[in-house]
Design brief:
alpha+beta, CRO Repressor, 2 domains, elongated, YetF_N, DUF421, UPF0702_alpha/beta_dom_sf
């Protein structure tokens, strides 16, 4: 088959099959990225690129590779929700960056987060006074959670690295 025609045919079929495999695999495959999701996405992209540009790799091999990567992702996430050890292996722990209006400088330095990034997250939440912010957490996917006010307990902060008293 002509290499250009091969790229067009395999490209269209691979793309459609990848969409079907991702839809069947569930929402978790398309969630916000952590390191594990990043690796999975890069692997899928690499498989698609190889399928598009290599006449040495058959469509069946590409589909098999898609399914293998998505199945590995499914198996690992299946065990991660059932095993704390597996979860720790693939996901980092959320980190407290600001608590009761005070910056957690050691955590900020360790996580390589600048004060300006925390202030931007606070502004994004529509808050103007840093001292009135109860907490800012760097989540496992790299996003910031801003908690404006607290009740009697910090239960939403359970498991967050750097929470006083843990």
């Amino acid at each position: 088959m002509n290499p250009i025609l091969h790229t067009i045919v395999v490209g269209i079929l691979s793309y459609l099959i990848l969409i079907i495999v991702l839809r069947v695999s569930g929402k978790r495959t398309l969630s916000k990225w952590n390191a594990f999701d990043f690796v999975t996405t890069i692997a899928l992209g690499s498989i698609l690129a190889t399928a598009l540009t290599s006449t040495q790799v058959s469509l069946a091999q590409s589909i098999t590779a898609f399914v293998v990567i998505v199945m590995l992702q499914f198996v690992i996430t299946f065990f991660s929700v059932r095993s704390r050890g597996v979860l720790k292996l693939i996901k980092s722990q959320p980190t407290l960056l600001l608590f009761r209006g005070q910056y957690c400088c050691d955590a900020m330095q360790r996580e390589r987060v600048a004060k300006t990034e925390i202030m931007a997250a606070i502004r994004e939440k529509g808050m103007a006074d840093v001292e009135k912010v109860h907490a800012v957490v760097l989540e496992t996917d790299g996003s910031f959670s801003v908690i404006g006010s607290a009740g009697d307990h910090d239960s939403a902060l359970e498991g967050v690295d750097g929470l006083p008293g843990q």
